[in-house]
Amino acid sequence: MTLASWKGGVGKSTLAVHLAGCLARRDKRVVLLDEDERVGSGARWASRGETLGFEVLRPEDVKPKKLRNVDFVVIDTPGRGGLRKLRETLKRTDVLLVPTGPWVTELDATRSMVEALRPHAEFEKVSCVIARAPAVGGAGKRARDALSREGVSVASTIIRAYNAYLTAAERGCLACDVRGGASAWSDVSALTSELFSA
Ligand SMILES: Nc1ncnc2c1ncn2[C@@H]1O[C@H](COP(=O)(O)OP(=O)(O)O)[C@@H](O)[C@H]1O
Ligand SMILES: [Mg+2]
Fold it and tell me: Where would you find the membrane-spanning parts of this chain (predicted)?
């Protein structure tokens, strides 16, 4: 699975780390490939300390041996690159997951990316997920249902906004290891089950 978006700060790296972490806690062998050379969130996250349960690789570290016997590869990408780059990415992945905030400016950025891909065969690999939605109120559900009505594949699970993700990033752990992180982790668990049938 590859996480991508044309907008930065939508939660790609946070989700990449947590989806990989959740799969690892379900005894799956997972590698997180951190392709964001500039920010390197996943690599930094792992370097902060606590056990994540999966290996984080940079592109230069990828060797066939490292990927042998792996159940899932989660790829975190930088929030840039045009249509051509995106289509290349789609060719080498099973699912392209596009996190998007629930507000109109964020949804419009997501729509322009998804619509650019719609004419191409790889479109069927694209799925959106509403992320950083307020934990109270219906903005997340409204955004999800709007995308769905437009014929965009969108996860039924909504990733709500919780401070546990920020604490987890600070400590280099997962939200489930943070006090008060249970709600965040329940979203991650639901999304993992939905996306990977794992
Ligand atoms: N579900 C969430 N709830 C609260 N904060 C979040 C959530 N997802 C991401 N963040 C925060 O938003 C910021 C951007 O997230 P990040 O995962 O780095 O996005 P991207 O990789 O798309 O640029 C970070 O400070 C991160 O801690
Ligand atoms: Mg990132």
Answer: none
Nearest CA to ligand 1 atom 8: 11
Please give the residue range of the domain that contains residue 119: 2-196
Sheet containing 30-34: give its strands across: 55-57, 30-34, 72-76, 2-3, 96-100, 126-130
Q: Which residues are within 8 A (CB) of 20 and not within 5 positions of it... i.e. 6 or more apart?
A: 30, 31, 32, 52, 54, 72, 74
Residue at 64: amino acid letter: P
Task: Kindly give the distance from the C-alpha atom of residue 65 to the centroid of ligand 1, in angstroms, as a whole number.
Answer: 32
Q: What is the pLDDT of residue 185?
A: 98
Q: Tell which residue, 1, 11, 8, has the closest CA to residue 168.
A: 11
**Cβ–ligand 1 contact at 161 (below 6 Å):** yes
Residues 109, 113, 119, 124: is their CA dihedral positive or negative? negative
pLDDT digits (tens, 9 = 90+) for 96-155: 999 999 999 999 999 999 999 999 999 999 999 999 999 999 999 999 999 999 999 999
Residue 124, domain CATH:
3.40.50.300
